[in-house]
């Protein structure tokens, strides 16, 4: 006779999963069975809408594909347009693009700490991370001189340059955050309770990571040393001191250690940018907007190392103002679907929040 289990619906807090989702599952002896995640509750924008507007009108909407990866989406879209229109952007724009991408990566780290601390009920770490998220958001907004979701990386370059006083302000802010990493070391990373609670939770075998095609910090925490910035450098990443940190076992503790070390490296890259940024007055090649609005026929495939892994864009043009095909693919497509079902199966109910937090899920990026 087959066992029958009641079905439960779990709705994670927005503080733990970066958006709205539910997980339906059954329980046997305190362990999750037959998990089924559902992300249909948060779908503000998708790639198909980009095919209905011309490429210029799409620019303000690219940032709204993801609150966590908005600059990654801008980078992919802008570089694809530039490739199809044979446009070279100023060197200072390349530096400022990478500056913004790495600031977003650092902000993503504090968001990650916030989620994990919330799952573990480490209230002080949670409040520290929230404070640092807000500080980084203000720093990013000061560079753009506008609100968070307005575009900064645009076809042809970037929206604006930084004044000397603006550069000093950003540099001082980064140095404060650099010191904060030492504080987090003392608060959580050297905390034995934190380490024990994270170790051996949500383990993802290397074989599963390879089979599912997982990328980013989750793959690197299982000793898969692939980073798009290093292997397929874009903008100025080929000049930067990029280190690829990796661990042997992808459990929740290895994943957060990997992210911490990568953020230290991101700060080093930003310091390099400040020491080497060229003195150019214009950060945009306006020829892209002087030409006809038509884009030549062809395809462009762009890859970028986002906050959570490899982000992709496939863009196809038949020639004209609108595109034939626009497809973004987020690493969350993999992490939040088959991989999540695999990890949650047989997971203890006590670890459910922590496993979800350790994957840095962003529901609005599912099925872009």
Can you walk through the features of this model?
With 368 residues, the chain is an alpha+beta fold. It has helices at 55-62, 70-84, 91-120, 123-144, 164-189, 192-198, 206-212, 216-220, 228-231, 252-276, 287-290, 332-335, 338-344, 352-358; strands spanning 7-10, 22-28, 31-38, 153-154, 157-158, 298-305, 310-317, 325-329. It has one domain: Orthogonal Bundle (Cytochrome-c3 Hydrogenase, chain B). 46% of the residues lie in helices and 12% in strands. Strand 4 (153-154) and strand 5 (157-158) form a beta hairpin. The radius of gyration is 21 Å and the shape is globular. The mean pLDDT is 90.
CATH fold-level label? Cytochrome-c3 Hydrogenase, chain B
The poorly predicted ranges are none
Major β-sheet strand ordering: 1-2-3
Q: Quote the beta fraction.
A: 5-15%
Please give the domain count.
1
Question: Could you give a quick summary of the protein structure above?
Answer:
This protein is α+β, with helices and mostly antiparallel strands and 368 residues long. It is built from 14 helices and eight strands. It has one domain: Cytochrome-c3 Hydrogenase, chain B, CATH 1.10.645.
């Amino acid at each position: 006779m087959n066992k029958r289990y009641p079905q439960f619906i779990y709705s994670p807090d927005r503080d733990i999963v970066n958006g709205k989702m539910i997980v339906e599952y059954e329980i046997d002896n305190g362990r999750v069975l037959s998990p089924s995640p559902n992300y249909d509750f948060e779908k503000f924008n998708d790639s198909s809408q980009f095919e209905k507007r011309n490429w210029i009108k799409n620019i303000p909407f690219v940032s709204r594909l993801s609150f966590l990866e908005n600059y990654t989406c801008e980078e992919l879209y802008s570089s694809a347009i530039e490739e199809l229109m044979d446009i070279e952007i100023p060197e200072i724009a390349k530096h400022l693009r990478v500056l913004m991408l790495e600031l977003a990566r650092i902000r993503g780290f504090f968001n990650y700490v916030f989620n994990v601390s919330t799952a573990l009920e480490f209230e002080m770490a949670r409040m520290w991370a929230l404070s640092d998220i807000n500080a980084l958001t203000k720093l990013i907004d000061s560079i753009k001189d506008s609100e968070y979701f307005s575009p900064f990386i645009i076809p042809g370059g970037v929206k604006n340059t930084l004044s000397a006083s603006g550069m000093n302000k950003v540099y001082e802010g980064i140095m404060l955050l650099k010191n904060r990493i030492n504080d987090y070391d003392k608060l959580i990373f050297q905390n034995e309770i934190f380490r024990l609670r994270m170790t051996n939770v949500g383990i993802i075998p290397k074989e599963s990571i390879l089979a599912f095609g997982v990328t980013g910090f989750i793959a690197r925490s299982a000793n898969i040393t692939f980073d798009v910035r290093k292997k397929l450098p874009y903008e100025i990443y080929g000049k930067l001191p990029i280190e690829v940190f990796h661990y042997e076992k992808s459990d929740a503790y290895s994943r957060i250690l990997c992210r911490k070390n990568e953020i230290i490296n991101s700060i080093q890259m930003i310091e390099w940018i400040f020491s080497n940024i060229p003195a150019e007055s214009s950060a945009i090649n306006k020829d892209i907007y002087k030409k006809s609005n038509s884009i030549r026929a062809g395809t462009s495939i762009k890859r970028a190392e986002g906050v959570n892994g490899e982000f992709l864009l496939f863009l196809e043009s038949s020639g004209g103002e609108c595109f034939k095909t626009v497809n973004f693919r987020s690493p969350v497509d993999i992490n939040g679907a088959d991989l999540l079902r695999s990890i949650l199966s047989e997971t203890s109910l006590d670890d459910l929040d922590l496993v979800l937090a350790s994957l840095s899920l962003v529901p609005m990026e599912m099925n872009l």
